[in-house]
């Protein structure tokens, strides 16, 4: 089966964060590919990846980037596919620089953006988007959300028993 989601990052140092998106997609049974595509160090590779991803069968891109964080926006400017940006925490500004860089896209070039280092939510959002066209994925999303609901209800019940 061909991958439906491309997970890209600017550096292998981003892998510990982006691995969470891959894990979620795997849990939902969604095929994905994962690679390094730097907007600044390999712009030709980035252009090629973004321009060919649709014809290769990808339907969504998850792009993680830190610091200047241009990768998600640049890829979004080159493809009609939805792009989900994952801001990566940086040592100097704790990822706020990454978040602002990704979320402040100009009109006409949207990038859905999750919280700093929250690639898990990027994976879930990608699954939800795919669920629009793939009923089997939508069913798994519904089961996942029901599981979350039950976990919270159990925690609430336990807290009410023991008090604060």
From TrEMBL:
The keyword Isomerase applies. It comes from Candidatus Hakubella thermalkaliphila. One of its GO terms (molecular function) is 5-(carboxyamino)imidazole ribonucleotide mutase activity. It holds the Pfam family AIRC. SUPFAM superfamilies: N5-CAIR mutase (phosphoribosylaminoimidazole carboxylase, PurE) (SSF52255). Catalyzes the conversion of N5-carboxyaminoimidazole ribonucleotide (N5-CAIR) to 4-carboxy-5-aminoimidazole ribonucleotide (CAIR). Residues 3-152 form the PurE domain. InterPro entries: PurE_ClassI, PurE_dom, PurE_prokaryotes. This is N5-carboxyaminoimidazole ribonucleotide mutase. Its EC number is 5.4.99.18.
């Amino acid at each position: 089966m061909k991958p439906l989601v491309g997970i890209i990052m600017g550096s292998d140092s981003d892998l510990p964060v982006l691995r969470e998106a891959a894990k979620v997609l795997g849990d939902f049974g969604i095929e994905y590919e994962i690679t390094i595509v730097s907007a600044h160090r390999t712009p030709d590779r980035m252009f090629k990846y973004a321009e060919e991803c649709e014809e290769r069968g990808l339907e969504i891109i998850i792009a993680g980037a830190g610091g200047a964080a241009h990768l998600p926006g640049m890829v979004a400017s080159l493809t009609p596919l939805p792009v989900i940006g994952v801001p990566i925490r940086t040592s100097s500004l704790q990822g706020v620089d990454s978040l602002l860089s990704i979320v402040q896209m100009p009109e006409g070039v949207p990038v859905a953006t999750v919280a700093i280092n929250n690639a898990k939510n990027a994976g879930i959002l990608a699954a939800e988007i795919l669920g629009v066209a793939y009923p089997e994925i939508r069913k798994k999303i519904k089961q996942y959300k029901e599981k979350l609901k039950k976990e919270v209800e159990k925690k609430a019940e336990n807290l009410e028993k023991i008090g604060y």
